[in-house]
């Protein structure tokens, strides 16, 4: 979804069929013309204080005022995305060890720099070099997945489902790429929501502080499902990642999806 900048600090995004479910409110917005509509989305509950939109051809203008809870949780999430992995920090070392033992509970880790890491799908013996793209949160995402949905995590790690390609995607590095893709999709650094996707996600974040991590788990399952459906090889990984993002966006915009758990692909987790 590519936003189109327009006046008044709002954006134009492709129209969504369920915008018609918004009810009118009495808020005034000087930047919007008389035929604009200011609505409180009934299907989103009271966490979105105001959503304003105006039809413009195939686009709609969306403005969102964040609640204090959304602002606080967005601030925390932004902070997480800014933390780089630092091998000298004890808490980062412990998180890396925790990932190892959540993945291989019966196998002793020799040291934090070891060829053992390659079996998890890191590019070399030092995983810290692979975290540079998405930072410490990509390690947190993997650890959350391993602890929360251990069977799904192990199934993807060991490539247990379907007919696998000769050149498979490296599990751990794929996870880092998924984190980065979601960060881009949600446009977390923007001061105001510039896409309806982000506005919807912020509502989900107000419902569950771990919405980002849950979305990550769903995205990983979608990616592997698409990989199998397309009989993809490693050279097609970026195309599969783009398709994964498209599927995430499609499901996030469904009218009856109010939480990450409502997404159709959440059922892929076990």
TrEMBL record:
ELMO domain span: 91-252
PANTHER family membership: ELMO_CED-12 FAMILY PROTEIN (PTHR12771:SF49), ENGULFMENT AND CELL MOTILITY (PTHR12771)
Coiled coil: none
Any matching Pfam family: ELMO_CED12
PROSITE patterns: ELMO
Name listed for the protein in its UniProt record: ELMO domain-containing protein C isoform X1
Origin: domain of life: Eukaryota
Gene this chain is encoded by: LOC105156704
Transmembrane portions of the chain: none
């Amino acid at each position: 979804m590519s936003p189109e900048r327009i006046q008044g600090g709002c954006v134009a995004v492709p129209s969504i069929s369920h915008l018609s479910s918004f009810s009118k409110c009495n808020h005034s917005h000087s930047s919007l013309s008389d035929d604009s509509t200011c609505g409180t989305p009934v299907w989103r509950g009271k966490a979105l204080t105001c959503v304003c939109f105006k039809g413009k051809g195939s686009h709609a203008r969306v403005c969102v005022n964040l609640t204090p809870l959304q602002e606080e949780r967005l601030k925390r999430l932004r902070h997480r995305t800014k933390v780089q992995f630092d091998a000298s920090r004890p808490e980062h070392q412990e998180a890396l060890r925790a990932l190892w033992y959540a993945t291989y509970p019966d196998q002793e880790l020799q040291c934090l720099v070891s060829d053992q890491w390659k079996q998890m799908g890191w590019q070399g013996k030092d995983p810290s070099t692979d975290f540079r793209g998405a930072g410490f949160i990509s390690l947190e995402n993997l650890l959350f997945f391993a602890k929360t949905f251990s069977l799904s995590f192990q199934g993807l790690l060991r490539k247990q489902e379907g007919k696998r390609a000769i050149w498979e995607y490296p599990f751990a590095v794929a996870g880092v790429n998924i984190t980065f893709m979601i960060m881009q999709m949600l446009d977390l650094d923007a001061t105001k929501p510039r896409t309806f996707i982000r506005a919807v996600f912020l509502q989900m974040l107000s419902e569950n502080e771990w919405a980002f991590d849950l979305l990550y788990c769903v995205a990983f399952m979608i990616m592997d499902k698409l990989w199998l459906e397309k009989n993809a090889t490693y050279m097609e990984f970026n195309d599969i990642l783009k398709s994964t993002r498209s599927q995430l966006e499609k499901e996030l915009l469904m009218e009856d999806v109010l939480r990450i758990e409502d997404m159709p692909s959440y059922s892929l987790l076990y």
